[in-house]
């Protein structure tokens, strides 16, 4: 009887597998043959062979290189020089046919090097002691500023310990990423300095809404030059017809407490179906200004460095297809230059999603204005600057409207002066908002405030005004407004650390965070459960709002599980995700 039941169960599983017409694949291997369906069509698809496996490339797909995205047509044109490069393809088998959804290529994906700088040469190369010759792709040259100028770049010098990633060619490595790991440059945003942001990882974990799967945590890690600044993460949604960008705030955080490197490690879990984008913008809460070479300090824009797809956690259930419909540019389309790229066609999955809008082709009437790199600004007192040219006036922009905000969270609003002939140092900034709201950094382009609590999800819209004036003439001003709409009360809970110290009888220590930074009855009031036991209160961190601590003596080995929940949130954070990330090789 038992054997009969096993055979029936096996037959049922086989029938399910045969009935499933869409299954996922991730293929990594050397690049083989490539071809395009059309030699002239800007958004053409075609075919690519990776590790000996031919894969269909749909129309409108961009190939991701380490430092850029390239239309497939242009990729095919240069593919002859890329034979043997490592390619990673994510896609689905649709009725047995492999169709790509995302393609990334590099000489060696994830290939890194490190060493000590021996010399910096005038031809734009850096010689590593006992190592290779590195060629910087934009060797503009940077010199030490006297007096010191926080708006100018600092040079690499002999003795710096650097890490790099690049392409080996002609006896040297052409680098596209170069970081001095033993150097820390600090600035003070409150004094008018720019705040620099460096991002290591943008890891997006997909929640596609299907059952019987495990959802991981989104994670963004990086560093700030000012450890007192808060950090906001924005998804960059793109209008498929015009290319206009809209920032959607998805998470907030701050550098780790006591971390002298000013490192931030922000994690959150999508409790509903994920909405993802090709790129994300990470912003500091202060120090937002244009510096040398036209670089915008205070923010860093980065593509997704890795996607964690849902993982089936119930044996015998159908494997979930890769949900490319949650990636806005793949589902809706996007703009490159004066070309409108539509939805991936054929769609790498089933059913085919409906785009958010249909383009007429007439939305782009003129080519975009080419930006001109700014010249290095002369050293100046950042608090006063020099007077602008006669007749120059600021033009205020309070940023895009923020929708879908969560009550009790720290909201960051980014304003700016759009007249590029006037620097921030030549201006004064003044934010005003509704009565009762305390605005932090009200005299800076970027401000933040704690979103008031509301007991319902009925949308509440609050309007903030940014007034920008000339520092040399307070009568020459410009104002703009921005609306912030709140319609959510459920916060997001994340377990940020847990450890067991077996000494002195054992001690379990757990740290968790909520994006609700309020205190009292409207705060998160996090509660913790150890090994499935009853929930008990965690202790709020009085220095870092939204952070909670817990310790328990008599524990000399890790418990089977740790769960943390909020009085307002719908998700329960567990150690499962962190353990999975550790097994996958991620740093926790």
Describe this structure in words.
- Keywords: Signal.
- Residues 1-19 form the signal peptide.
- Residues 368-392 are annotated as: Disordered.
- This protein has 588 residues and is mainly β.
- It folds into 5 domains: 20-106, OB fold (Dihydrolipoamide Acetyltransferase, E2P) (Beta Barrel); 113-180, OB fold (Dihydrolipoamide Acetyltransferase, E2P) (Beta Barrel); 194-320, Immunoglobulin-like; 396-488, Immunoglobulins (Immunoglobulin-like, Sandwich); 493-583, Immunoglobulin-like (Sandwich), CATH 2.60.40.
- Helices cover 6% and strands 41% of the residues.
- It contains 4 helices and 43 strands.
- The strands form 12 sheets. It has a 7-stranded mixed beta sheet with strand order 3-2-1-6-7-4-5.
- The chain is globular, with a radius of gyration of 26 Å.
- The two termini are 48 Å apart.
- The model is unreliable at 1-20, 366-385 and 576-588 (pLDDT under 50).
Which key phrases capture this entry?
588 residues; mainly beta; OB fold (Dihydrolipoamide Acetyltransferase, E2P); Immunoglobulin-like; 7-stranded mixed sheet; 5-stranded mixed β-barrel; 4 helices; 43 strands; disordered N terminus; disordered C terminus
Q: Tell me, briefly, the overall form.
A: globular
Helix content: under 10%
What would CATH call the architecture of the largest domain? Sandwich
The stretches of 5 or more residues where confidence is low (pLDDT under 50) are 1-20, 366-385, 576-588
Distance between the termini: 48 Å
The value of Rg in angstroms is 26 Å
Q: Sheet bearing the most strands, described?
A: 7 strands, mixed
What's the domain count? 5
The main sheet orders its strands as 3-2-1-6-7-4-5
Keywords: Signal
